[in-house]
Amino acid sequence: MLHRSLSPDVPVGTLYSLLRLRIEVFVVEQECPYQELDGRDLDVETRHFWLSPQERTEEVQAYLRLVEQPGGRFRIGRVCVAQHARRKGAARRLMEAALGEVGDGACVLDAQSDLTGIYTAFGFEPDGEEFTEDGIAHTPMRRTIR
Prior knowledge:
The chain is an alpha+beta fold. It has a single domain (2-143), classed as 3-Layer(aba) Sandwich (Aminopeptidase). Helices cover 25% and strands 31% of the residues. The chain is built from three helices and eight strands; from the N terminus they run βαβββαβαβββ. It has helices at 12-29, 90-102, 116-120, and strands at residues 2-6, 46-51, 62-68, 74-81, 107-112, 125-126, 131-133, 136-143. Strands 1, 2, 3, 4, 5, 6, 7 and 8 form an eight-stranded mixed sheet that branches. A hairpin with a 2-residue loop joins strand 7 (131-133) and strand 8 (136-143). The model has no long low-confidence stretch (mean pLDDT 88).
């Protein structure tokens, strides 16, 4: 089941589950200790997208954050899928939902470099030099206004 919510509308139990999944994937699984909570989750313009099983809507299986930046540009980030839910189209569904909200607007993201192929399928192109963040290679990517 696909869910979408603006920051103030996310129930506290659901927010906990979203953050737990992000920490499980980015901090524990990828062995990357960093400050995962960056303050953007509570911004009024931040939109959260997540998938949960039909029968257990409090269980978050996949997540994506869409932040509206100054000037009307959007940034996708924190895309993650629980190990047991991977390779079943979850990331694709979240990307389609987020880009549906972005519409024809410009959108950027910083892809883990080994995952850039996923994002090129949605019209993103590399937009700068590869950089290392928290020990992981990333590639800045942009989808221009259509």
